[in-house]
Specification:
This protein is an all-alpha fold and about 200 residues long. It has two domains: about 45 residues; about 110 residues, Four Helix Bundle (Hemerythrin (Met), subunit A) (Up-down Bundle), CATH 1.20.120. Helices cover about 65% and strands about 0% of the residues. It has seven helices and two strands. Strands 1-2 form a two-stranded antiparallel sheet.
Length: about 200
């Protein structure tokens, strides 16, 4: 019996030693976090490839628009319009001395005709002398906006006054005073010279 007691005591000691011994800590389950990070990495990888493809497409687009290749014909300048705002803007449609012709019309009392000559002459000078690109569908406001990078401030100011007088006479039927039209005619020579481009 002693043997049995010794065995029981030894078994209990082994059992208790096993219970009291420190257990190794369980590893946290990071399978979900790992899966999330792998998915995020895949999304970022795709995003980088898409961004690279877009950058390459943009670079090709830019090259095709801005680089002239050998053998490629140079771009032709747009054709000059014959009519703008319903006005004939061919150089041959104007008198040799626009300002003198306008002053003669003013002397006859034809202020609208004088304004028309001055305005047409200015448009012809802008098209042919200053290289301003005007299209048949442009408005007077478009014209004033397009001349800004091409002409001096004094010319812009003159054209703004001329356009305002022309619009008042042609569209609102408010004819400016003869002295104002005459001043525009005399200033025309200082801005554009005596002749429109031919």
């Amino acid at each position: 019996m002693r043997l049995l007691c010794t065995l029981v005591a030894a078994g209990a000691a082994i059992f208790l030693a096993g219970e009291l011994a420190p257990k190794p800590e369980a590893q946290p389950d990071i399978k979900g976090f790992t899966a999330f990070m792998q998915g995020l990495a895949q999304v970022l990888r795709v995003a980088v490839w898409v961004a690279l493809a877009m950058a390459l497409a943009f670079a090709l687009f830019w090259l095709l628009r801005h680089v002239r290749f050998k053998g490629e014909a140079p771009a032709q300048a747009p054709a000059m319009p014959d009519l703008l705002f319903g006005l004939d803007v061919r150089p041959e449609s104007l008198p040799k001395d626009v300002a003198a012709a306008a002053l003669a019309q003013i002397a006859r009392g034809e202020l609208v005709v004088a304004l028309s000559l001055l305005y047409r002459g200015a448009l012809v000078a802008l098209l042919h002398r200053h290289g301003v690109e005007l299209a048949g569908g442009d408005t007077e406001a478009d014209c004033l906006a397009k001349i800004k990078p091409r002409v001096q401030d004094s010319t812009q100011g003159y054209l703004a006054r001329l356009v305002a007088s022309w619009q008042a006479a042609a569209y609102a039927h408010r004819i400016p005073p003869a002295a104002e039209v005459e001043a525009l005619a005399r200033q025309w020579q200082g801005v554009f010279g005596t002749q429109a481009e031919r």
